[in-house]
Design a protein that fits this description.
Order of helices and strands of chain A: EEEEHEH
Strand content of chain B: 25-35%
Shape of chain B: elongated
Largest interface: A-B, 38 and 39 residues
Number of strands of chain B: 13
Strand content of chain A: 35-45%
Strand order of the largest sheet of chain B: 9-10-8-7-13
Distance between the termini of chain A: 25 Å
Largest sheet of chain A: 3 strands, antiparallel
Helix content of chain B: 25-40%
Shape of chain A: elongated
Oligomer: heterodimer
Strand order of the largest sheet of chain A: 2-3-4
Largest sheet of chain B: 5 strands, antiparallel
Structural class of chain B: alpha+beta
Number of helices of chain B: 8
Number of domains of chain A: 1
Structural class of chain A: alpha+beta
Radius of gyration of chain B: 22 Å
Order of helices and strands of chain B: EHHHEHEHEEEHEEHEEEEHE
Number of strands of chain A: 5
Number of helices of chain A: 2
Radius of gyration of chain A: 18 Å
Chain lengths: ~90, ~325
């Protein structure tokens, strides 16, 4: 996502690179030259998650779906200027 | 027995081929590296047929053909220079390089498909039923039909040929390392730009891959996703363009490219801070996968998502 100049991403989804026996999670976020780039991948590697692996898998999934992973916050350098624009 | 359908006068086919060409070969002008290499190849070639033959031969012998990689479904192609420098590419990569070289030589190029005669009546060209690629190349007064790895250019070269190089039979999928036909993958890519008036404009690409994903369901899933997710972060979203590429009507990769525009729905934290919730990636298409796992799919939020549901339910 490209944003206007004077916009800055101050909060982005946290980077992750985690793996369990049943799944993998990768996420990479970056802000550069007014562009936010987020790449993420969740992979389920087993057709059935065994009970002993479920806890770790659930933690992985929660990391992927937690509220923090969903939001972007932008800061506008000089909002007063923007507000008075016609 | 395979039949060549290039000779058809059917406008539907012609327009579909044009769409395919646009989808896969949408590069700008050939770069300097491709142009200089083309000049070198054609240096001592005088006649147009010789030039076409030389380009075909160069790619056939120097660009190694590779299978489609697991996460490059729907034949996403690389840029011609990258293909030339690396010396490898899948079928469409190699044809894309040919297209660039033909253009560098001042000619024109279009992509064509051919396949078993039983599938010629299909209204939509698809790689599964029409699994052989051809190129119509025009250079000067010469116009040729080219199959990269066949010496003979005529339609007769197809007689008796097994048109199965790209068919999506399970055994073919299994031959590609890491590509299981039972995969149920969905990939979403959003590329967008926000302007000073906070209007967000861009494209959403959704790709469903897996040998047994039905197109009808991919279409429905995409439609529901658009209805549900776009209004969550855009006010009164407008769909500007849609491009549906269905490679296999009875199952397999489907790609949807949707152009959109609308004003962003922010949560204003204060005068200077604005928060946006990024839309979900659609889930895979195989119901039993997600219903069995009982995972709250609605919780996925990401801008560029590659959600892979791999080996979810192999037989």
């Amino acid at each position: 996502m490209k944003v206007p100049e004077k916009w800055k991403a101050v909060r982005m989804p946290p980077n992750m690179d985690a793996k369990t026996d049943s799944g993998t999670l990768f996420r990479d976020s970056a802000f550069s030259e007014n562009t936010v780039t987020i790449q993420s991948q969740f992979e389920v590697r087993k057709p059935v998650i065994p009970a002993q692996e479920y806890k770790a898998f659930k933690a992985l999934w929660d990391s992927y779906t937690m509220a923090d992973a969903n939001t972007l916050v932008f800061q506008i350098e000089d909002p007063s200027v923007r507000k008075h624009e016609p | 027995m395979p039949v060549l359908i290039l000779a058809t006068t059917d406008q539907t086919w012609k327009s579909k081929w044009a769409e395919l060409s646009r989808d896969f070969f949408n590069f700008d002008k050939p770069g300097d590296f491709v142009v200089s290499k083309t000049k070198k190849i054609l240096k001592d070639k005088i006649s147009d047929p010789d030039k076409i033959s030389a380009l075909r031969k160069f790619i056939s012998e120097n660009i190694v053909s590779i299978p489609v990689e697991p996460f490059r479904f729907c034949y996403q192609t690389r840029d011609p220079e990258s293909i030339l420098r690396s010396g490898y590419g899948h079928e469409l990569d190699r044809l894309k390089l040919l297209a660039a070289m033909v253009e560098a030589a001042g000619g024109s190029f279009s992509l064509c498909l051919a396949g078993p005669s039983a599938h010629v009546s299909n209204t939509v060209p698809c790689l599964r039923s029409l699994p052989d690629f051809f190129a119509r190349v025009s250079l000067g007064s010469e116009s040729s039909l080219i199959h990269l790895d066949d010496e003979a250019f005529s339609a007769y070269s197809l007689l008796g040929k097994r048109a199965a190089s790209l068919s999506r039979e399970k055994s073919d999928w299994m031959s590609v390392p890491g590509a299981d036909p039972d995969d149920d993958q969905c990939r979403m890519t959003i590329s967008c730009e926000l302007d000073d008036k906070e209007i967000l404009k861009g494209n959403i690409e959704l790709v469903y891959a897996g040998a047994f994903n039905p197109f009808a369901k991919a279409r429905w899933n995409t439609s529901e996703w658009l209805k549900g997710c776009l209004p969550e972060f855009i006010q009164e979203p407008k769909i500007l363009t849609t491009n549906v590429l269905n490679l296999s009507p009875d199952g397999g990769p489907s790609r949807f490219l949707i152009g959109f525009e609308g004003k962003v729905k922010w949560e204003e934290l204060d005068d200077a801070l604005k928060m946006i919730v990024i839309p979900n990636c659609p889930q895979g298409l195989q119901e039993k996968t997600t219903s069995f796992l009982r995972i709250p799919i609605g919780g996925i939020h990401c801008i560029s998502v590659c959600a892979a549901w791999r080996n979810a339910f192999s037989a």
